[in-house]
Amino acid sequence: xxxxxxVGYIFLGFVMEDPPYYIMARIDITGGSTGWHRARLIWSxxxxxxxxxxxxxxxxxxxxxxxxxxxxxHTDITNxxxxxGVIGGLPLTVIYIATLWIAFMFIGKTLKHELSLSxxxxxxxxxxxxxxxxxxxxxxxxxFFDQSAFxxxxxxxxxxxxxxxxxxxxxxxxx
Length: 175
Hints:
The chain is an all-alpha fold. 65% of the residues lie in helices and 0% in strands. Helix 5 (80-111) packs parallel to helix 7 (148-174) and helix 6 runs antiparallel to helix 7.
């Protein structure tokens, strides 16, 4: 599935006039979509990569035609991945993506031992995987802040603890 998703995204890059992430600009179910803003923010961050790639930036205002009312130096960063880049450049963005990748790996490795897990453990594992997937996708349209960041860190912690618990369970079973 992951391989097909990557190949499909690359294929869309060849077929579409705009970059594939502009699909979110075309989806408008209720008539009040802000998908164009989100897609344009990705495009603008790529255009201004030289300004933020190493250390981040304190001035993304000129990336977008609109800013925020509370600051003349900022624009509405509605993407968690770009927010990480603004805060700490590409190194922080790569670390954030690697953290999500490792959390998915932990859940996948724990799932390999599903026969030794109870029904409640499997439900917790499924819930953690679904939540991690939702947070990963939602990061394209929001930047976590304040209390919403709690859920991001909670699911990362749960993913790691499930893997750690399963490693101990498998070691005890093997003895």
